[in-house]
Amino acid sequence: MPAERALPAGGTIGIIGGGQLGRMTALAAARLGYRCHVYCPEGEGPASQVAAALTTAAYEDEAALAAFAAAVDVVTFEFENIPAASVRVLERLVPVRPGWRVLDTAQDRVVEKRFFNGLGIATAPWRAVNSLAGLNQALAELGRPAVLKTTRFGYDGKGQSKIGADDDAAQAWRALNGAPAILEGFVDFEREVSVIVARGQDGATACFDVVENRHKNHILDVTLAPAALPAALAGEAQAIAAAAARALDLVGLLAVELFVSRDGRLLVNEMAPRPHNSGHWTMNACQTDQFEQLVRAVCGLPLGSPARFADAEMTNLIGDDILTVPALLAEPGAHLHLYGKAEARPGRKMGHVNRIRPLSSF
Ligand SMILES: Nc1ncnc2c1ncn2[C@@H]1O[C@H](COP(=O)(O)OP(=O)(O)O)[C@@H](O)[C@H]1O
Ligand SMILES: [Mg+2]
Questions:
Q1: pLDDT tens digits, residue range 139-171?
Q2: d(CA 200, CA 94)
Q3: How far is the CA of 270 from the centre of ligand 2 (A)?
Q4: How many Å apart are CA 272 and CA 106, to the nearest integer?
Q5: Where in the chain are the domains?
Q6: What is d(CA 127, CA 148) in angstroms, rounded to the nearest whole number?
Q7: Which CATH superfamily groups domain 189-358?
Q8: pLDDT digits over 25-51, tens only?
């Protein structure tokens, strides 16, 4: 895209969502001379603390959305579960990157699986499930163990349950309260990996290295960069992410989570069209981090180099982990990022620490 399409420094980026991903996006935007205006229902929080302006309103409030659109030059998301109708309201008034079609695909696990399979990209075997009879049929077809998930609004393992050999399917179904669901065959994976690709307005893509993710209590605990994968498999994961971003005509970031099966195949688990927790390591180990890359993409700037100059280990600080901060501050090579959350509730992401080991190839 020609340079005149780029948003000049001093312009304002609208960010939907008020959490830590918005905070780190706003900090990256500030480095490039932009202002950020945060829109979220919760009021003051991690993102608004470092932004120039805040709108506190429901995601369904069309008047507030219109006023927000009038106050910003471009809109992006740090949170993707906002109603498609609201995104359409914004899109009539201001460029929205990525657009509603991307969010629509990523918000629903059935639509998402169909999208990947339609590109010839493998996932776990799955069935859409809308009744107990449908669940029993799907269990008969896919076998046990299997994982039952709500199609929408799941995160950090919420809205899902594993159905093992002796588990009661009816109970698993009741727990969802009638929400539309998907049953997935359980993948006995060797490891979980993810990859983040940025795509600019000109269609250029830049992929970060593939990383390995380890979870604790269904919440991301540690990310290891790079993942210990054969180069061909890592390249395949990057190609999957780039193909998905192209097919969605996405401008921004796309994070793709994958399973590596014990026989060395990649199966896509899910995607997120925004910065991702498994990309926080890039803040201290890459030439351009995921947040700056998002800002560059949505503002029409050229993408930066995603090259990794260090090995990195990112550890989330969850709940009381925040008590380790004094020790982390004293640790050489530990880069601390805190999100400004006042209260350390169990399961709450308070910050993260990146430990880096520079490569010796300089
Ligand atoms: N089909 C599956 N087979 C094996 N493990 C799974 C499967 N689906 C999910 N999991 C495990 O549960 C975690 C959370 O599931 P995911 O679909 O990524 O939902 P969330 O939106 O909560 O991140 C995954 O990272 C993985 O460890
Ligand atoms: Mg996930």
A1: 999 999 999 999 999 888 889 999 999 999 999
A2: 17
A3: 6
A4: 6
A5: 3-96, 125-185, 189-358
A6: 10
A7: ATP-grasp fold, B domain (3.30.470.20)
A8: 999 999 999 999 999 999 999 999 999
157 CA distance to ligand 1 centroid (A)? 7
Q: Whats the size of the chain, residue-wise?
A: 362
| CATH number of this structure's domain 3-96 | 3.40.50.20
Instruction: Check pocket membership of 80 for ligand 1, CB cut-off 6 A.
Output: no
Q: Which atom of ligand 1 is nearest to the CA of 186?
A: 3
Rounded alpha-carbon distances, angstroms, from residue 311 to 36, 99, 225, 346: 31, 34, 6, 29
Tell whether domain 125-185 is in CATH 3.30.1490.20.
yes
The pTM of this model reads 0.97
- Report the separation in Å between the CA atom of 215 and the middle of ligand 1, taken as the mean of its atom positions: 10
- Model confidence over 251-266: pLDDT tens digits? 999 999 999 999 999 9
Give CA–CA dist 87/282, Å, rounded: 29
